[in-house]
Amino acid sequence: MSLPNSLHRWRLPAPWLALVLLLLLSGCGFHLKGYAQPSAALNGLYIVAGDRIDTVAGVLQRELLGGGVILSPDREAAKYLFQVVEEKFSSRVLSVDANGKALDNELRLRAKVRLTARTGMEPHEEQLELVRQLSFSGSDELGQRNETALMMDDMRRDLAAQIIRRMEAGLR
């Protein structure tokens, strides 16, 4: 089937069409979820215990460095000081099967964070909490533990992203 003669004039090669669509998408502000770059307002931030990769502070440091933020290597020279005062995971069984095995768990990550500016501003302290439900099927104990560990890592990343958004909003 061929196009009518009037439409042949408007036919664009595929690469040009792709380029036009890309320009239109970027012009409207479209971006993939999770790909927002942190703002330069976070430059000069020092994260206490950021070298511990299995904590919210470690995940936050990794996310900021990956986003191009220039973190302060020295606590004394930093514009802002960020600290996770308390980080606590808890788990609660929501339902069990006939044999008493847990089918549904509720995972809760609670973190108390503090942001202090060197300019003499009062320290801002906040308590953040994430709750997730995790359903298990079968009796694979090792699989359940691995799935729980993966969910905990995912919750840390989500909390770090939430902290970044809150810091950016507060520092603007």
From TrEMBL:
GO terms assigned for molecular function: lipopolysaccharide binding
Function in brief: Together with LptD, is involved in the assembly of lipopolysaccharide (LPS) at the surface of the outer membrane. Required for the proper assembly of LptD. Binds LPS and may serve as the LPS recognition site at the outer membrane.
Pfam families hit by this protein: LptE
Gene Ontology cellular component list: cell outer membrane; transporter complex
One GO term of the biological process aspect: lipopolysaccharide transport
Keywords attached to this entry: Cell outer membrane, Lipoprotein, Membrane, Palmitate, Signal
Domain of life of the native organism: Bacteria
Record note on quaternary structure: Component of the lipopolysaccharide transport and assembly complex. Interacts with LptD.
InterPro entries registered for this protein in UniProt: LPS_assembly_LptE
Protein name, UniProt field: LPS-assembly lipoprotein LptE
Gene name linked to the record: lptE
Record-stated family: Belongs to the LptE lipoprotein family.
Organism annotation: Candidatus Thiodiazotropha endoloripes
Record-linked Gene3D superfamilies: Lipoprotein like domain (3.30.160.150)
